[in-house]
C-alpha cells in the first residue's frame, strides 16, 4: 500500500513537467512542418506562409501553404503532407483563392 501511495505521489508531481514538455514537443513539431512545407512550396509560391494542423494525423503532419503564385498575380494554396518518420514532404495540387479562403498569420 505504501509503494502505491509513493507511486501516485510521484506521478502527481511529474505530471506538470510531462505536459509542459509535450506542449514544447508539439510546438517544435509544428515549426518543423511549417519550415519543411514553406521550403517545398518556395518553387511555386512567392513568400509562402503555412497554416499547420497542430497535431496532424498518426503518421503525417498537415499544412496549408498560401501565397502569391510565382509569375502570376493570383493567390494560391497547396496542401502539404509531412511524413513524421522520414521528415519528407509532398505537395498537392494548387487551389485558387476562389476555392480556399485562408489568411495565415503574419
Short description:
The chain has one helix and four strands; from the N terminus they run αββββ.
What is the count of β-strands?
4
Instruction: Tell me the strand percentage band.
Output: 25-35%
* Gross morphology: elongated
**What average pLDDT do the residues reach?**
82
User: Quick one: biggest sheet?
Assistant: 4 strands, antiparallel
Tally of contiguous helical segments: 1
Structural class: alpha+beta
Strand order of the largest sheet: 1-2-3-4
Walk me through what this model shows.
The chain is of the alpha+beta class and 106 residues long. It has one domain. It is 38% helix and 33% strand. It contains 1 helix and 4 strands. It has one helix spanning 2-41, and strands spanning 45-52, 60-69, 75-83, 89-96. It has a 4-stranded antiparallel beta sheet with strand order 1-2-3-4, with helices on one face. The radius of gyration is 19 Å and the shape is elongated. Residues 3-19 have low confidence and may be disordered.
Topology readout:
Blueprint: H1 2-41, E1 45-52, E2 60-69, E3 75-83, E4 89-96
Antiparallel strand pairs: 1-2, 2-3, 3-4
Note the main attributes of this structure.
disordered N terminus, elongated, about 110 residues, four-stranded antiparallel β-sheet, alpha+beta
Amino acid at each position: 500500500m505504501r509503494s502505491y501511495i509513493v507511486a501516485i505521489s510521484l506521478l502527481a508531481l511529474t505530471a506538470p513537467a510531462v505536459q509542459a514538455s509535450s506542449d514544447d514537443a508539439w510546438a517544435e513539431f509544428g515549426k518543423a512542418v511549417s519550415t519543411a512545407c514553406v521550403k517545398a512550396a518556395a518553387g511555386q509560391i512567392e513568400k509562402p506562409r503555412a497554416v499547420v494542423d497542430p497535431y496532424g494525423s498518426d503518421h503525417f503532419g498537415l499544412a496549408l501553404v498560401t501565397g502569391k503564385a510565382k509569375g502570376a498575380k493570383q493567390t494560391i494554396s497547396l496542401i502539404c503532407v509531412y511524413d513524421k518518420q522520414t521528415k519528407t514532404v509532398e505537395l498537392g495540387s494548387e487551389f485558387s483563392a476562389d476555392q480556399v479562403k485562408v489568411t495565415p498569420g503574419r
